[in-house]
Amino acid sequence: MRHGHRDHRHSGDGCGRGIHRMMGMARRGGPFDGPDGGPRGRGERRRMFDGGELRLVLLKLIGEQPRHGYDLIREIETLSGGAYAPSPGVVYPTMTLLLDMGLAEEQASEGPRKLLAITEAGQQHLAERADEVAIAIGRLTALAKVSERTDAAPVRRAMHNLKTALHDCLSREGATRETQLEVARILDEAVGKIERL
Predict the structure, then answer these.
(1) Exposure string over 168-182, b if 16+ CB within 10 A, otherwise e
(2) Helix extents (H) in the chain
(3) In what helix (H) or strand (E) does residue 41 lie, and over which residues does it extend?
(4) Which of 3, 92, 116, 160 could form a disulfide with 185 if both were Cys (CB 3.0 to 4.6 A apart)?
(5) Strand partners, 104
(6) What ranges do the domains of the chain cover?
(7) Which of these, 146, 157, 55, 156, lies nearest to 104 by C-alpha position?
(8) Which fold has domain 40-150?
(9) How far is 82 from 174, CA to CA, in rounded Å?
(10) pLDDT (tens digit per residue) in 137-172
(11) Is the pTM of this model over 0.70?
């Protein structure tokens, strides 16, 4: 019986594949932490929203109450369960566009931050695109559910403990090829049990 590493690429969409994804997220810091604040995965940057969708999301949020740019970023992050936050370099130009389109207006506020409120034209714009708004917001709330399932604190703790134990075992003096094979066997057995959950 070979104790080498098993190839799990043939697995379905069960827990085993989820564990591989989670370990990738742990190494990268999260599924949506690309350099521009957008989603990141497999070495490439992908957008959570296109420009029109983000514009609708921001308009929806300022329709609920006037907001600063920072408030908009934090609210989107909250809606996504902390999995996604648009970058200021995307949000602030979109806020300016909403002003230019007459969909939002600037309100007086304390401090230098720009406070945006929705206009009547903005409310009409939202009403005409209610389905698109619902889909965009739904994407954020769905992401929050995925994040809640895959970013559980006990799993993160266990993964950290596993990493530490592997390092300590394999780096100590006297570790042999047999030790490596036994570690691989234990890990393969654990993966198999997880896949059967």
Answers:
(1) eeeeeeeeeeeeeee
(2) 15-28, 51-64, 69-79, 88-100, 120-128, 130-150, 153-171, 177-195
(3) strand 40-41
(4) 3
(5) 118
(6) 15-30+152-195, 40-150
(7) 55
(8) Arc Repressor Mutant, subunit A (1.10.10)
(9) 44
(10) 998 888 888 776 666 667 778 888 888 998 888 888
(11) no
